Queue: 3 jobs
Job 1
Amino acid sequence: MKERSKVQDIIWNIMKELNTYFEKEHIEYYMLGGTLLGAVRHQGFIPWDDDIDIGIPREQYEKVLNEISKFLPENLALYTYKNEKSHHYYFSRIVDKRYALKRMGSLVEREEEVWVDIFPLDGMPNNIFIRKVHMIRLLFARMMYHIACFDKVNLKRPNRPLSERVIIKFVSITNFWKKLDMYKWLEKIDKLLKKYPYDSSEWIVNFMGQYKFKEMFPKKYYGNGKMYTFEEYKLPGPENADGVLTQMYGDYMKPPKDQEKNAHAAILNED
């Protein structure tokens, strides 16, 4: 077995606790993004990656938010934007309170507990025209949310689209972000994402992931799920992992160049 970093070890211990809970409570979940890529290409963590991302269909996601805290050991906690002031993300996290990472790359250096990210998987309109309109509304709300928490955005993330770089430049010059209420836009995103039920939708999305609508797929891509080797476990992912990863990364079996590696700008604080 390949050697893991200390941060990866901490994250993996969180994930094992979560997997036990999900199996016990029959929660459907899937590895997402770089976690799924790691499973397919490395049979575990991408060597330079330092998190795990999982997605849960919306109805079960809400159940997890309501119930999981009762099952967590003392060192772990659920963070959402509704229960933890320092948590400015729309998605949720399970954190290990014993360990902190120094986050760099934003205007304000800060610390965050080591985490596993949990994203809701949401339905999208079946009608293509209505879907396009819904996508525009979501993108606008997401842009306003990111502007509202501009001081926390990782400005050093590689491979940002030109449109994002232009917005970042504009906001940094004008200080426009200071006039916006982040929580108002989080609530707007929440309302929009819950509009179309997962079960009756032919298309589903992890909209608040890094790749936005590159993570919108026909629901049949997820199918009944499939088990993939991740470290010493088998974890569930989409049935059509090739379709998912090709849409997100292109030639995903080819490792990126060093300057294109998208690791979090963070170091473990061992003080």
Job 2
Amino acid sequence: MKSLTRHHCLLSLTLLFSASSPFCQLAAQEFRWEAGVGAVAANLPLYPGSSQTSSYVIPFPYLRIESEYLDIDQGVKSKLFKSSNLRFSLSGGLGVPVNSADSNIRTGMPDLDLVLQLGPSLDIVFDNDKTDAREWRMELPLRVAIATDFSHTQNIGWLLEPRLVYDSDRLRRAGWAYEFTAGMRFATDKYHAYYYDVAPQYATPVRPAFESSGGYSGLFTDLIASWRKNSLIYFAWARYQYLGGSVYEDSPLVEDTSYIFVGVGLSWIFAESL
């Protein structure tokens, strides 16, 4: 889910901007915000490459801030630096936990924890038409991945996801907005190992031992559409992911290399600036 794929770590950014900061003073000139709550329902593969799926209903906070030097939209990205065609941002992602007993191919292997991703992104804007709120840009997010069951955490490597994005936002407080993304993923051997390695002690006749390497991890496309009326925002998204040619394609844990998954959701805005 953009790519559900993308969400929610903002407190550290607030600490970067003190009241005396010139960035903060400039941002306050045109500062607007909205706050609310929402939920998304989605049917996802247990992990990328799994042939089994599971349905999820995930609540989330909604926060949108617009200013000259700080933009936060759906808790995904904050703009720390802006020029006419370059932005430095924060990017996030999420991987759902998996009980290996629920996966036929992973039975007897360790569970997969919740995976949180966070890191910087360099965004290169090719075309920005403010008259109709359209934008073409290249995003270059680099993220560290942390697996956690909330009793311990584990650094499981790094990901790079270069992507081309077309973004069409609402000109008013009502109407449609769209975002289309096409990109590819590269990751370290440690990240691939977390999902796709089979240690010798877990090998079986149908699940031979496998050791991952770092490198190409697949490609993806996302389409997100949302419609707003008053304080409600309805949205839907779809992702196509193709793992063919990835460095872990031959892992016995990769059952499907091509799949589509979808989700729908609703956000309710209960507070906003005047």
Job 3
Amino acid sequence: MDKIKIKDLELYCRHGVFPEENVLGQKFLFSAILSVDTRAPGKADDLEKSVNYGELCHFIQEFMEEHTYKLLEAVLENLAEAILQKWEKIEEITLEVKKPWAPIGLPLETVSVEITRGWHTAYIALGSNMGEKETYLRNAVKELDESAGCRVEKVSDFIATAPYGVTEQDEFLNGALKLRTLLTPEELLELLHEIEAKAERVRTLRWGPRTLDLDILFYDNLVLDTEELHIPHIDMQNRDFVLKPMAQIAPYMRHPVLNKTIKQLEGELHG
């Protein structure tokens, strides 16, 4: 990915742990590395197709003057999210803030914090087999799309499927969606659980009836196995109710462990 770099933008701000820092303020130096595709603006010689770094610098100034934080870490987390939400062309941003002469009671030229944040692509499976199934699914899509740091980009059709595991229950309505998100996998899982809880999801029986079931299928090409979270989702290659809606929205998405596309996995399941 191409880069646009801004180095040592000098601003006077009021951030710090000590009360006098929030009143008197001091100098801070901001640097940024923007991951953007510069080919189109470069070919067209058109600023509208690129990121106007002048506007971005003024945005940083306004944001820093309007907000006050105790920690440099908080400064960067909030600033990075605001920039990524405002400029869709920026896929990833590395931000650094330097604080000269930090008041620690010792000679110190500068202290700095640097973070890298960006957009991630996740695929989410949706299911319901209780009550107003379609309403539960559509409400979940809406809640995800309206959540901070989330954008729903594609949604499959909702399909009726036979229950999996425990077969003596009502049929399911299943779907899948493509999500662009600033959340980590753990933060995304927490959000999904919150949306399930609003739908009065009760976890009593594995594979049992539920008003709403939301699972992370993929998160970029991440392979993750923890006590709470498995990515890619376990055994998805054997579940038609996952593969069929996924084939609608991402047929050529490649499973990072099995090294096969969704289309290939669906073909093998029905082969």
